[in-house]
Amino acid sequence: MAYLKLPDNLPADGATLRHWHVGAGQSYAGGTVLAELDTLDSLVHISASVAGQLIKQLAQPGQTLHLAGAPLAEVGVTSPAPTDNVTKINQTPPKEKSMTTDATGSAAVPILMPQAGNTMEEGRVLSWKVKVGDMIAIGQVICDIETDKATMEFESPVAGRLAKIVVPEGEAAPVKTPIAFVGEGDISNVESAPLSPREKVAQATPVARPGEGGIQISQVTEQSKSTTTDNRPKFSPAARVAAAQQNLDPLALASAGIGSGPGGRILSTDVPHLATQITTQAQSSARTNPAPATTPAVTTTPVSADGMTRKPMSKMRRAIGLNLQQSKQDRTRIFMYAQTIDADALLAYQKAMKPLAGCSINDVILYLLARTMKAFPAFRSRLEGDSIVEFAAVNLGVAVGIDDGLVVPVLMNADSRSLADLSAETKRIVENARKGKLENIGKATFTISNLGMFGVEEFAAIINPPEAGILAISAAREAVIVNNGSLRAGKVMTLTISADHRIVDGMLAAQFMAAFKKNLENPSAVA
User: Fold this and answer.
1) How many other C-beta atoms can be found within 10 angstroms of the C-beta atom of residue 345?
2) Which of helix, strand or coil describes residue 279?
3) What pLDDT is attached to residue 475?
4) pTM, entire model
């Protein structure tokens, strides 16, 4: 059996399968583009060097792949590979490797520090669950990582033997840089320096590999998706915020030293150290060139006035602010739509089901929301680069308020859970979130935020990028309900959806809210 495989020069942070151009069972000619891969910087075309037939797709659109040479599809060859293709093996220029190799040439696949949220700059390894030499599987929890908002269990994106741990327990590393390596053989000399997430995918010359039925990735073409890094900011957004809060001049910080981020970028964690450097330099300068006695001393200690106190913003508050600021910066892509429902049937259903399922009104809304989303794929999608990735299951973020901010644990597979199971799982992830342990970070496509328990009658929530949208749930309130010309006293509830126009159109959002309203007003009819 022959296979269509991933390029050998796969970037360290992997590639996402964007689209299949040829379906299972279809034949293709030599040179046909079979699939597209999306890397951080490039759109990669995978072509066949010879004619054949695609038998079975082994990877699905939206799936991110990390292992170079991993099979994408089973193929059959209908014509022999041209001889000149084989001779081109020696003519192919050396490829730029995104994988790291040791002195013996053994391939070492890096495990990168995950980015759990758009504003996360670094993570700290709290504990390793595996040791060097252990065999690990994809999805296995290998370590606990502390972010700026919570602690999470990190699941391995690759399988193999853990060959080297780069970041020991208690130490931090920037996102998308290696914390460990998987590989065979002695890789003690492997480069442990952070890898740039902007590594390019090199062009590959058409080659037919013996023993693979003449099938090979014939072309890997690259289209630049971003500008060069010449104009890359020297400061991360969080570092600029930290500097402003401490009334520090960014230029002075930059002159005091080099940051720990990629390319010397100054991160928020660098600011205290560089501020100390500035103070040290100023004190040294003062000793060399003493100021006149009449010059008042400069103090950096905050001064309270009129009973007011000042305290630095926590890392969590900064992370929340930066994340929501990013969502609001481009208001043209976001729209909001409010819908008021007759809540009498919903409240009665929750009251009847509570002894059986232990459910709250929020659980019932989650249950009905997930069932409604099954018919609306756009609402179980999220943005990844220039691609919209649709998920088969409904994964819902649940906004949870804690003492110092807001966290969003994720309820996985909400559409396939019973009401009792959903209620129990929601309680579990919320309790863990309040203890500082988040689960399934970055896997939601949609979030709900409920302020109804505080009597809020209507509000709009800000999208948690790169999700499709967020639903704001308000309190049930008494109102006069008009139905077919008759009046009655009842309770109503206002729900507001905020959606990303790049994923969800206004008409689709209206259709979704109409279907959701129907389910909320007749919950017993929903399977």
Assistant:
1) 16
2) helix
3) 93
4) 0.48
